[in-house]
């Protein structure tokens, strides 16, 4: 996402004991667009309904960090 310059593989997720993929990172206060990189393609976060259009004609998820 925006927080890592859209670099694939920068924040790899790990599957926990319940089979859920997770990753925790520290972000500064602000609003960030993101998607997941899965099997060489961008995927939306199905658990987050906050979205916005991007410059490619598709949508990105949005997360807002409040400190």
What does this entry show, briefly?
This protein is mainly β. It has no helices and 7 strands. Helix content is 0%, strand content 37%.
What is the alpha-carbon Rg in Å?
12 Å
Flag low-confidence runs: none
Mean pLDDT: 95
Beta-strand percentage range = 35-45%
Helix count, per DSSP? 0
Distance between the terminal alpha carbons, to the nearest Å?
A: 19 Å
Query: Could you give a short account of the major beta sheet?
Result: 3 strands, antiparallel
- Sketch the topology as an H/E string, one letter per element: EEEEEEE
Helix content estimate: under 10%
Indicate the topology.
Blueprint: E1 14-15, E2 21-22, E3 30-34, E4 36-38, E5 41-43, E6 51-53, E7 59-65
Antiparallel strand pairs: 1-2, 3-7, 4-5, 6-7
Account of the 3D structure:
The chain has 67 residues and is mainly β. 0% of the residues lie in helices and 37% in strands. It contains no helices and seven strands. It has strands at 14-15, 21-22, 30-34, 36-38, 41-43, 51-53, 59-65. It has a three-stranded antiparallel sheet, with no helix packed on it. A hairpin with a 2-residue loop joins strand 4 (36-38) and strand 5 (41-43).
Keywords:
67 residues, mainly beta, three-stranded antiparallel sheet, two-stranded antiparallel sheet, 0% helix
């Amino acid at each position: 996402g925006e927080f890592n310059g859209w670099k694939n593989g920068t924040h790899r997720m790990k599957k926990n004991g319940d089979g859920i993929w997770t990753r925790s990172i520290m972000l500064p206060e602000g609003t960030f667009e993101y998607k997941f990189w899965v099997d060489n393609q961008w995927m939306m976060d199905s658990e987050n309904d906050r979205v916005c259009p991007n410059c490619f004609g598709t949508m990105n998820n949005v997360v807002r960090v409040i400190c």
